[in-house]
Design a protein that fits this description.
With about 150 residues, this protein is mainly beta. The protein contains 1 helix and 8 strands; from the N terminus they run H-E-E-E-E-E-E-E-E. The protein is elongated.
Length: about 150
């Protein structure tokens, strides 16, 4: 009887567990991060490329942040449910560019999360100041509005 119960438990876990992680994480939509920055990712084309916009809540400049364009691509080989992606933001309000790379996850509660790492490159006047021109960081984005299924 104990062996049968163990087998039923194992079979139940095997059947239920894939459903938890099989929900696909979709990049398209509106996202916000822990600093209050917002971005919108438009529909991906057939090659996995996308465009959108980014409005940062933080800046190291004295300029007022404005919505800036982003463009990127999602790795779409084998149509994985938690894809990797990368995008570039060309800031409209400063002489800087940021590249983000990350992965789209669905957490245990079914919530989509974008885990990213970024490099921000600012323009400097000369090569001797190159050492201070690149910053690195991480951001976690969550969906602003739930994606309709």
């Amino acid at each position: 009887m104990v062996q049968v119960a163990a087998f039923v438990l194992m079979l139940s876990l095997a059947l239920v567990t894939p459903g938890l992680s099989s929900r696909q994480c979709v990049l398209t939509g509106k996202w916000t991060n822990e600093l209050g920055s917002n971005m919108t990712i438009k529909a991906l084309n057939g090659k996995g490329e996308f465009t959108g916009s980014y409005l940062t809540a933080v800046t190291a400049t004295t300029n007022e942040p404005t919505e800036s364009p982003l463009q990127g691509s999602q790795h779409h080989t084998n149509q994985k449910s938690q894809p990797t992606f990368g995008f570039t933001v060309n800031w409209n309000f400063s002489d800087a560019v940021t590249v983000f790379t990350g992965q789209c996850f669905v957490d245990k509660n079914g919530k989509e999360v974008l885990k990213t790492m970024w490099l921000l490159r600012s323009r400097v006047e000369n090569i001797k100041d190159d050492w201070k021109a690149t910053r690195v960081g991480t951001n976690v984005f969550v969906r602003l509005q739930p994606q309709k299924e």
